[in-house]
């Protein structure tokens, strides 16, 4: 599998782009003409720079408005092409992309276009060059890869081939299986891009909103399966026009790009077992069976405050670490670890971010296999020196530099609590909390696609459409990632400014991390009663909310009263019902949520988020600091 990426896909000048592309492990680059034109160096220098990075130029593009021109435009088009052939020879690439003509003066007709290409093929052949033809989704006469293929077929010249671009095919909802009958050796290069499904002008959509395969909603895997079935084995080249990526980090966008291609081809290879596909060997996407633990780093005072908060939610101090300043709170199947060590990664994380849930532990079938898949996808593994009697828990780096540990039942890992911890023997209390329902991570909006791809490529999860959450100070975008059975539920919240609760949280804690943890229970009213007895202080919800709720859902006034009394929010989807209550803030905006799902409710109470945020903001003093 040969990977490539167009220079337009990332930010920076050509030098920065090439460095980032090479570092991410790509084999080649498409030189986008404008990147070359903006660069102050000769074509030969650019070619050398590319090769010095261990890359090859897979394509020079785009060449516009070539085929079907009436004279005198036609002669001019051939002259222009010859000039670009000169340039290609100097750059050191043999392939040029011609995209379908958009000129109002161009003439239609498959045979006319084919004749132009045959003549160009002759000229290219005399210089050892090749030309590929791509149907732009908004081309004037050719806007469908089937028609572009017909032009290429009739041109009938070995130096003229087809270029496929997943965006143009899928944006027009053309069945990708129509690709299967094209001979693979007539396809000169395959460009890949995804995009969010939005009904809009094709050109604008393509030039501003493309994203990496897997980050959007287009069936890029089906497209690539069809391409693989042709026998095509040339470069897979990302061509991503995206406003956000143009201003993003070249390094991280390149890493995302490589990850998207490896993940895509892994999926394709699994779906098409009869086709030989060269893709790094790795385990299939990892099934998680739940959150085994969440670990906080804190200093003593914060650890004590957190301990009180957890006790007021019915947790018990169940065990202490045998050798470290680490304690375990437990309730139902929930393990909360609080780490106050003065050295090691947790402490470094504390020094940078303050008290935070810096690590989560996921239950998987095979922890080593999980790390192997993550590594194959370019994730960073995490290792820390461990003392005698401690287990080396396989782990990777996650959001905000945090850690994701993996616990399996195959090894000693399943006994980590017994091996590393000494039970306190304290009487265990219980307020009915059973498991972690979801983990919510807050980040800058620009990071969301990165982490979406990270989670969905490593774990067997799916995303649901992004929703907008209204904070009084701005929008926060929320993206759910979950496994089919709900064992793993994550929400990514992307803040666009610092005045929102989410934005304040990442500004004050110096980076993205877990902002809230939701625990599940079976009877939220019974749990609420227990918590009141334990001294838990719920987040107070506006009274107006409940009047509307009753009207909106036609609730029994008695139920509304109970919800109001306990500050419980409510939502419904079909027969499913959802109940949520929140605690007060801890630190710079971290909080706990308690939820009950009834009759298969699948959502996250998104319609309530606005009212929850408003309530949370009321607890923050004008200085911006949460009230003690
Ligand atoms: O937006 C464009 O003009 C454009 C140019 C070249 C391509 O390969 C493409 O897919 C789109
Ligand atoms: Mg293209």
Automatic annotation (TrEMBL):
Molecular function GO labels: 3-dehydroshikimate dehydratase activity; isomerase activity; metal ion binding
Matching CDD domains: HPPD_N_like
Binding site for a divalent metal cation: 134, 165, 191, 239
Keywords: Isomerase, Lyase, Metal-binding, Pyruvate
Classification via PROSITE patterns: VOC
Cofactor: a divalent metal cation
Enzyme Commission number, as recorded: 4.2.1.118
Protein residues bound to Mg(2+): 438, 516, 593
Pathway terms, separated by semicolons: Aromatic compound metabolism; 3,4-dihydroxybenzoate biosynthesis
Similarity annotation: Belongs to the bacterial two-domain DSD family.
Name of the protein: 3-dehydroshikimate dehydratase
Species in which this protein is naturally found: Neoaquamicrobium microcysteis
Organism lineage: Bacteria, Pseudomonadati, Pseudomonadota, Alphaproteobacteria, Hyphomicrobiales
